[in-house]
Structure formats: C-alpha cells, structure tokens
Amino acid sequence: AQKVTQAQTEISVVEKEDVTLDCVYETRDTTYYLFWYKQPPSGELVFLIRRNSFDEQNEISGRYSWNFQKSTSSFNFTITASQVVDSAVYFCALSESSSGGSYIPTFGRGTSLIVHP
Amino acid sequence: DTGVSQNPRHKITKRGQNVTFRCDPISEHNRLYWYRQTLGQGPEFLTYFQNEAQLEKSRLLSDRFSAERPKGSFSTLEIQRTEQGDSAMYLCASSSRDRGSGNTIYFGEGSWLTVV
Description:
heterodimer; A: 117 residues; mainly beta; six-stranded mixed β-sheet; four-stranded antiparallel β-sheet; B: 116 residues; seven-stranded mixed β-sheet; 48% strand; globular
C-alpha cells in the first residue's frame, strides 16, 4: 500500500491562480515527519518544508502555505498567485521509524504543476 | 556551504557493462542515502549509511548493486552487468545527525544512467 498518496498527477493553471497540491499519508507511528520537495526541470530535488507529527500549526512562507491535519492524515500545499517559475514536480514525503530504527523518507509519485503565462 | 555533489551527471553505457557513481555529501552530514528515480515516479529508496556503516538496504537493491562508504565521507554506488531496466536517475542525499534537523535530507543533482 502507498504510504504517501498524491492523487493529482498533473495540474495546469494560469498565472496568478491559487493552486493546492494534495498529500495523504499513512502511518502507525506517533512520531513521524512530513516533507515537501520541488523538482524543477533541471532535476534536482529542492527541500521546501518539514513538519513533525507533534506540530500541527500551519505554516506560511511568502506565497507558499502548508496545511497539516492529523485527523485526515493530510499535508496539503497551497501556492498563492502562482507564477511560471513555480512550474515543477512537487513531491510529498513521509519519514517514519523503519524496522532498523532509522527515519528514511518515502516519497509520493509527485504532482506535476504547469503554470501558463 | 557546498551541497551534495554527484558525478558523473550523465552516463550512457552498453548493456552488460559496469558503472559506478560517486556522491560527496554535505561536509558535516554523517548520514547518506541513495535513491533511484524513473520517469514519472517519485524517488525510491535504495540504501542508507550512517557514517561508514550501511544500515538499511531496500529490496530494490539486487545483488548486481553494491554501495560503499569506506571512510564515512564520500560514497560509491556500483551497478554490475547493467540491464536496460537500470536506466534511471540515481539520487544521493545526506542529512545531519542534529536532532533538530528532523532528518531532513538534502539531495544532489542526480546521476542519469542510460543503458543501451
């Protein structure tokens, strides 16, 4: 079973629209971490944000905001007033304690965001 | 502060040949990870080192794959007798032992492998 589900394969918007990328996760651990990464066409995965399971505060960073809800096991990402430079594949990841005791991130399949001028 | 460095960035090889990728992590990071990413998919975990010890290996890491981190600094990933299904981007990442980092991993630019 998928531990991290990103149901939206591709989203296409026009510049200045707001867009929300969904992420649903599955874990039995009480301590875990959630992440979002951006992968532009150049290929390098860029870290955007980390949340731990004990911190449900939403976070805003410029045009980016994240909504963490344990009740629905979701960690959604909203871009306000999207720009062409936001075009990329976005990955949600979950880090939980593995059988070996390490926290190793598991990634979703990603959502490709295309922002048209 | 230099990031994670990987080389070569691109490698084209004939089926059956061996290839080796190198990863230099962020200097103060003691944890190192290898992932593989194919088109349209997210990164898939291959293996993990803490210092020089290889602590976790995925089932994806067949016996043709071997990874080392001999002195706890750089790491190599070798694929023997390559197959066309090995064509992918191989990603290296590193993270700090600092608990406050929450095990955030930072990726390199990746090494693209094409097996023809």
